[in-house]
Amino acid sequence: MEIGRGSPITRPTPTPKQVANKKILELEASRDLSKIWLHIDMDAFYAAVETLENPSLKGKPMAVGSMSMICTANYEARKFGVRAAMPGFIAHKLCPDLVFVPTNFEKYTYYSELTRKVFRRYDPDFIAASLDEAYLNITESCNERGLSSEEVAAELRNNIYEETGLTCSVGVAPNRLLAKVCSDINKPNGQYILPNDRKAVTTFISSLPIRKIGGIGKVTETILKDVLGINTCEELLQKGAFLCALFSHCSTDFFLSVGLGLGRTDTPEQKLRKSISSERTFSATGDEPMLLQKLADIAETLSNDMQKECLWGRTLTLKLKTASFEVRTRAVSLQKFIQSKEEIQTYASKVLKAELPLSLRLMGLRMSQFRDDKCSPRDPMQKTLASFVISGNVTASATCVNKSSISEFSDEHQICDAQTDLSVHRESSASNDNKISLSYETNDVLASNQLSCGLKFASTSNADGIENMGNGCSEKCDSVETKNEMISNFSGHKTVAASSQKVELSWVDGYICSVCGIEMPPSFIEERQEHSDYHLAEMLQEEESVYGTGHLTQERSVRKALQAKENARKKLKSSPNKGRHIPIDAFFIKGKKNL
Ligand code: DCP
Ligand code: MG
Prior knowledge:
Shape: globular
Number of helices: 22
Mean pLDDT: 72
Distance between the termini: 61 Å
Strand content: 5-15%
Catalytic activity: DNA(n) + a 2'-deoxyribonucleoside 5'-triphosphate = DNA(n+1) + diphosphate
Oligomer: single chain
Subcellular location: Nucleus
EC number: 2.7.7.7
Number of strands: 14
Bound molecules: 2'-deoxycytidine-5'-triphosphate, magnesium ion
Protein name: DNA polymerase kappa
Cofactor: Mg(2+)
Low-confidence stretches: 375-503, 543-558, 572-595
């Protein structure tokens, strides 16, 4: 048939079989056999750690957990059918001699860290999958040392045992998906090597039950088995047409690549973490002191993990699972970046208390919205306020501060550190997110009252020298008048800046900041004050950055800000108990309008 000019060209729609075949060809072309991946999984991890610390448990069937739930069981107990995530009372029925040991996450984290020290020697970029599991790319290790993957695996297992006293199982394969399957084959205390050879891979995968594949759980297995009669990985290829017809591209690609024995071979780039969390499951309880204690433990773990990764965050999310298995999350965005156990615990407890009374079986804490720079707020490499002042064309003779003067200034933070954040804030102001975050940092470092002191220092060091700065700054500068006075000092005799921006801070509907839209419950009184201080600081910096170019004096606009702040405070004071009745929804950051 001749197709006339302009007639639409009609191509026959490919059949699912054709689509599947094409996909299989494409996937096959992407096969990479150049990498050697090792998956390591500690044996009966929690149970083994407990036995290591209490050798009297050796040889006895034991489980880690409680009568309501067990986390894992040693291999002696597994002979009786005792398994992880089984209620303890059932495990006890299966094995009446079962010894129960309560969980101790500190211990498991400690031993996990010991294993990771060994992993690092083989692959500094190893991927930790959980406390007791990791993926290591041992390609270089094998090639550089002229060792086979089998030798490296055996050596690694031996090193782990010598340095921790614990045994592990290892799988080696050309990709991570297969390596994980392999580590389970000779468990416990064994290894299985799948060579980097296409034939070996396809033979290995062909008869493998689909359930063995990470990512194919009970539900997927049931659908594939019951609906399509797919039991083995090979059958995923044979029934590829059905998969193409029934599932999304993404799922189909996954199933077909499993059928071919393909998996990830690249080391994922260290993505910037978005969040970090810790959670605990326990027997359902409504006992408030007990819940608060558990929350404190979780806060400690989270804080430790954050410290390890040098993370400071400002959005804290509390996850709760009630006795009736309802899952709730409650989030609160803070004015500053936090990391310490105490701070996390303080805010988390506030959020939890708003939910109580409640019977809970799980609690978790997640921290997100991290500082960009990952440095401690006292990073000495950061700019000082003096340099900030200089860069802002405000003459300052000193670039740093005499420490003895500093100490009377603030009993906790040194001014050099505090100054840092002002400058960072200013430099980052292009990004709203940074702007808010870093300004909170300003509060973190300086604390709201110290901010004003810092500004005063800037002025006095400029005009009168450092020695004068102590005047008034060792006291808490929490009154508007004090701040006004100091800010006047800062602006000194110069007529400055000019921003037509009005800062009219108030809390809309009781909890939304009228300036930036952040939501904060009225019960967060201190945080609200810090927030007001933040806007004040932000404004001062804006004023400073356009120093001398506008119509208003800096004093005037600052006074406006202070007035707004004072109004907000009055509002707060006039309804001191309002926060106690605010619905928990108030903790959510619904629309981060200006964040
Ligand atoms: N874990 C848990 N709850 C689960 C499964 C596991 O708390 N449902 C904990 C306890 C385990 C640890 O995680 O010790 C590691 O999990 P694994 O699945 O690797 O199990 P084990 O290491 O205990 O045993 P295996 O020898 O099978 O790896
Ligand atoms: Mg394990």
